[in-house]
């Protein structure tokens, strides 16, 4: 191999010409900036990708919009219809009031009355006060209270005054 | 500016600067400023390697950028078994070889201009002097012939020549980058030089 070295030396010198091939001036000034911008873009895409990963139906929906414009048109029509329906309903206050304020239909009422009987022990057994430092509670209404909804009413109280003399 | 100078030993391999480890750690934690510094540190060498492998500036630009992006994405898998520099080189080389395999038989050279120093390099001046067999050959023609000859080599042979004779990496460093033993590097280098010498005989000075 050594006897070939002088020949390779000439070749090696010719190969040094490659070192003088340089990119356009200022090329490396922007290189790292471009790389970092692409990395940031990639991270943003990854965030969007994770959103689609958690909601694959959303991705399928968007893809179907791209491949079949009929779907996009149908979706837009349905959305417009929904908006129109909402607008029309909003202009009929009596309907809106009925729908919202009418509490229950007739078949629901018996069920409501049957549930009026408290299943839990009376709350007042936990609330009996034996000294004046406890808050004043209306115990009569406490039995109808359920799940921590405790009405607190102010009452007049009289404290016995003991005369020291 | 001379691109792809032989690699300074303090920048490569085991003797990498201590702050490189810190930068890599910070970059692994998602610090983009630290990674930006690493990119700036190695951008010229990575670009040069890819450029000399492809002989195409646009391809080299894309591949070099993609190499840095891929390296950032894969930083968490970087165990530190080799230096960051070697690891980065390996990513760039693999990416380039995959690219070249895909675009086989569609070689389109887009060569960078020679810098001002080329005309004043005594070795290169000698190639276009009276001693050169093809006296009419100018530097640009030499550049084109040289690149054409390099592109005739297989990717592993071209890579060895580029890393050793153009970029100045040692056999050991090339073996690490190419993930092969030093003997393979030497034999590939010898074969590649023989081939190049045969193809460029008209432009080489007789010994």
Poorly predicted regions of chain B are 4-15
Outline of chain B, from the CA principal axes?
globular
What is the CA–CA distance across the termini of chain A?
128 Å
Helical residues, percent of chain A? 55-70%
Structural class of chain B: mainly alpha
Number of helices of chain B: 9
Q: Judging from the principal axes of the Cα atoms, what is the shape of chain A?
A: elongated
Average predicted confidence as pLDDT of chain A:
69
Q: Main β-sheet of chain A: number of strands, strand sense, barrel status?
A: none
By secondary-structure content and strand pairing, the structural class of chain A works out as mainly alpha
The Cα radius of gyration of chain A reads 41 Å
Strand content of chain A: under 5%
Question: Based on the structure, what is the oligomeric state of the protein chains?
Answer: heterodimer
* Helicity range of chain B: 55-70%
Query: Tally of extended strands of chain B?
Result: 1
Question: What pattern of helices and strands is seen along the backbone of chain A?
Answer: HEHHHHHHH
Gyration radius of chain B, rounded? 18 Å
Q: What's the mean pLDDT score of chain B?
A: 84
List descriptors.
heterodimer; A: 165 residues; mainly alpha; 1% strand; B: 207 residues; globular
């Amino acid at each position: 191999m050594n006897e070939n070295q002088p020949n390779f030396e000439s070749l090696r010198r010719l190969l040094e010409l490659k070192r003088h091939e340089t990119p356009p001036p200022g090329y490396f000034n922007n290189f790292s900036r471009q790389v970092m911008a692409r990395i940031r873009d990639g991270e943003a895409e990854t965030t969007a990708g994770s959103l689609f990963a958690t909601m694959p139906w959303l991705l399928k929906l968007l893809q179907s919009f791209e491949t079949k414009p009929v779907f996009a048109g149908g979706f837009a029509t349905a959305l417009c219809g929904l908006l129109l329906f909402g607008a029309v309903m909003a202009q009929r206050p009596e309907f809106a009031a009925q729908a919202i304020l009418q509490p229950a239909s007739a078949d629901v009422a018996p069920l409501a009355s049957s549930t009026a009987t408290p299943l839990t022990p009376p709350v007042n057994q936990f609330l009996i006060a034996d000294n004046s430092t406890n808050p004043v509670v209306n115990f009569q209404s406490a039995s109808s209270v359920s799940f921590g909804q405790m009405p607190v009413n102010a009452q007049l109280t009289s404290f016995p005054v003991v005369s020291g003399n | 500016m001379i691109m792809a100078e032989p690699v300074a030993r303090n920048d490569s391999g085991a003797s990498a600067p201590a702050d490189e480890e810190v930068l890599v750690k910070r970059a692994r934690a998602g610090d983009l400023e630290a990674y930006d510094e690493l990119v700036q540190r190695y951008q010229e060498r990575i670009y040069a390697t890819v450029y000399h492998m492809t002989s195409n500036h646009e391809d080299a630009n894309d591949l070099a950028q993609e190499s840095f992006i891929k390296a950032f994405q894969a930083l968490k898998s970087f165990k530190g078994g080799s230096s960051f520099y070697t690891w980065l080189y390996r990513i760039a080389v693999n990416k380039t070889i995959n690219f070249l395999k895909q675009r086989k038989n569609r070689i389109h050279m887009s060569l960078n201009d020679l810098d001002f120093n080329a005309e004043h390099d005594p070795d290169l001046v000698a190639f276009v002097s009276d001693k050169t067999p093809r006296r009419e050959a100018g530097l640009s023609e030499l550049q084109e012939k040289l690149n054409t000859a390099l592109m005739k080599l297989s990717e592993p042979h071209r890579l060895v020549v580029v890393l050793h004779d153009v970029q100045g990496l040692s056999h050991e460093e090339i073996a690490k980058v190419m993930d092969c033993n030093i003997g393979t590097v030497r034999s590939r280098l010898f074969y590649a030089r023989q081939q190049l010498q045969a193809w460029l005989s008209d432009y080489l000075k007789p010994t």
